[in-house]
Amino acid sequence: xxxxxxxxxxxxxxxxxxxxxxxxxxxxxxxxxxxxxxxxxxxxxxxxxxxxxxxxxxxxxxxxxxxxxxxxxxxxxxxxxxxxxxxxxxxxxxxxxxxxxxxxxxxxxxxxxxxxxxxxxxxxxxxxxxxxxxxxxxxxxxxxxxxxxxxxxxxxxxxxxxxxxxxxxxxxxxxxxxxxxxxxxxxxxxxxxxxxxxxxxxxxxxxxxxxxxxxxxxxxxxxxxxxxxxxxxxxx
Length: 236
Fold this sequence. Notes:
This protein is an alpha/beta fold. It is built from eight helices and eleven strands.
C-alpha cells in the first residue's frame, strides 16, 4: 500500500511515517496542500492521511480536488478545537477522521479497517445472487455485484464508505439501524460517541441518490432510533 501523509507538524509527520513504514507501507509526505494534489496526481496513492490545517491549500480544498477525480480512501486529521471543520471535511467526501492527540496504533487500526472496506468494495459481492436492486421503475439501481449505483441511468460515484452504508441499508430494508450499529458495520470499529460521522455520510448519500435530499424517500431518519431504507425493490 502506498500512503500519502499531508501534515503540517513535522514531529507528527515523522512519527506517522516511521510507524507506517514499519507496517511495510510506502509513504510520501508533504505539508503543502498544492503539493499534496500534485503528488496524488503523479502517484495515485492508495490512501491519504489529510490534516486540515495546511500551507498553501486547505485540507478541505485538497479533499474537494481529490474527490473530483478519485474515490481513494481519505482519513482527515484534526485538532479538538477544529472538529466542526472535520464535519465539513466529511461532507466533502472524507471517509473517516481522527482527532489530535492520537495514538499512532489507532491510526494504523483505522487505516487497516478502511482498506479492508475499500478492498471489499472493489472485490466482494454483498448480494449473493448478484442481482441489482431496482427502485422507482429504474430511477435508482444499486448493483452490489459490480459495485455500481445508477440514478436516472447515470453512474453515481460513491466512496467505499458511502457504498457500504447504502448496501447495508438497502439490503436490510425493514431494519432500523442505530448510528452506533452503522458505525461498527460500516466504519469497522466500535462507536466512539460522535454520531455526526454517520450523519455526514448519510447527508452525502442523500445528495447523490435522492431526488430531493431535504425530503428523502429512500434513506429515512427515524427519530430517536437511527436510519432505515424505506423503499422496497421492485419484484418484492
